[in-house]
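Supplementary Note 3. Input sequence used for the single-chain structure prediction.
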Amino acid sequence: MKVLASPGTTAGLKFDAARARAAINAVGGHPALWAWYLVDEPDLNLISPAQVRVAHACVKSLCPAKPTALVLYRGDSAQHFANIADITMLDRYPIPWLPLANFGQHVESARLALPADKPLVAVIQAFDWNTDRASLHAEQDTPLRAPTEAELRAMTYDALARGANGLFYFAFDTSFWKIREHPAVWDGLRRVVAEVNERLPLFRAEQLWWPRELKFADPARRFNAALQSAVIVRLLRVRDGNGVVPAGDYILAVNTTEQAHTLGFTLPPENAKADAVAVLGETRSLAPAAGRVTDGFAPLAVHVYGPLR
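The predicted structure, written as discrete structure tokens, is reproduced below.
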């Protein structure tokens, strides 16, 4: 287990280099320390990139040097902040006041501002916004709740599809909200994380382009609330597999909407003549026709096809 720790101060006008030095001297060599948390949502809190750079430079100048991290509120802020810290994180907590599609949209924006090999950690909502309704500026009669297991799972795979190579689940533990007192959320999260660990080769896979063509049975519903494809489809190449996810190519498809869809898509050219396409973790396979497969998606469903032959 690793710890993302505060250096005793935060980037901004009140950044205190002496406190950072004291914190790093005290615990900087601890083997459990993963990274120093420079600042929380500087784009939301009106902290400039220049101020974050000052904090980053200070912390990196002190020994022992450890990675630095910051979290952004908006994916499009990454054009200004994403390449300052060693690790960029993106938190979007849309349930239920925004469409779930808003999450992946912002993760993708942050990913596009980063070099391919730079870490991007998606921070996923695992709490009920009733714990801090005031921060949300929600109307008093707006019904709020925690994410369902299906929403947790969809956001997890959507983060993978959008290029995140790290995951955090934020439980927002307060006197009002303690995740272990909410079995539906806690048990659902445990099952999702267990699945991630079981399928870890997928989350370490390389994303590939292929000449895909998506065809929705109902074209009028082909877009999600972010005006992107209702079902996000990606090709993943697993080089180091395990007993659950053998090495090979896989197609990941995530329904980012609360609607059911029927979707057809082309297989990569090298797999176009396959007789059958297995669905990972499901007791079924699809029969391609002319290099295409068609499948149904329940609301928020995730399907992984492969390994492709």
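The domain at 206-305 is CATH 2.60.40 (Immunoglobulin-like). The chain has two domains: 3-203, 206-305.
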